[in-house]
Design a protein that fits this description.
It comes from Lacibacter sediminis. The protein is mainly α. It has one domain. The protein contains five helices and no strands.
Length: 126
């Protein structure tokens, strides 16, 4: 029985970590980033309209990959609507800053600026 519990816990940990990047660094230039250096946003000319800028980035980078299109045992939340995104904006901000998300690929500096600056400006539904 203990073996079954240990095995189940190991599988759960593997699934939870499967939608996260590992290793690497991110200097804000859109490298292959992982958990390295934190990105410093530049909000001076960032495009921060939710429907025109932020939502398309999240759709292309987070939901199309299959990770955040629906909640599951491995992904605790979906990112399809303003309400879903707004509810977890703090976690999104932290993941974008650290470079740990998106799992597949990377965001450009402009994309990171759009997401982070939109959140920092109050995350309006515009």
């Amino acid at each position: 029985m203990k073996w079954l519990v240990s095995c189940t816990m190991l599988i759960a940990v593997c699934f939870v970590s499967s939608c996260k990047k590992s290793g690497g660094t991110d200097n804000g230039g859109g490298g292959n980033g992982g958990g390295g250096t934190t990105y410093t946003p530049n909000c001076t000319s960032a495009a921060i309209q939710f429907s025109a800028n932020v939502l398309p980035i999240i759709q292309a980078s987070c939901t199309v990959s299959g990770c955040h299109n629906a909640p599951s045992a491995t992904v605790p939340f979906a990112l399809n609507t303003y309400a879903e995104i707004n509810q977890v904006k703090t976690q999104i901000r932290a993941a974008v800053l650290s470079g740990s998300m998106p799992k597949s690929g990377t965001l450009t500096a402009a994309q990171k600026n759009s997401i982070i600056c939109w959140i920092d400006a109050g995350a309006a539904n515009n």
